[in-house]
Amino acid sequence: QVQLVESGGGLVQPGGSLRLSCAASGSTLDNYAIGWFRQAPGKEREGVSCINSIDGSTYYADSVKGRFTISKDNAKNTVYLEMNSLKPEDTAVYYCAITPFNPVPMVATLFGSWGQGTQVTVSS
Asked: What pLDDT was estimated at residue 23?
């Protein structure tokens, strides 16, 4: 059973950057795709980005393409989400989760082992 713990959130000004971490324990991530989702108050959880450990392919939602970068450190069993040029509309709780299936499209119900989330607030 994989346990995931997110960290790295915080308060940042528009245009700033943050790097989120998703640390896994209990099992290797090598057999899964790992996704980052976010949920803002009053909105549905949406898929932001994912990386497939099998072939290394990545996916980004249109709203973050060119600003966010997902990566995986196999030695640390950790996935990162580098977020640049942050906008107020990026404000949300960010979660990571895993799926043994094709991760695209990012359907939240196909992902499991959800972490507790980390708050990202973009505000001046």
From this structure: 98
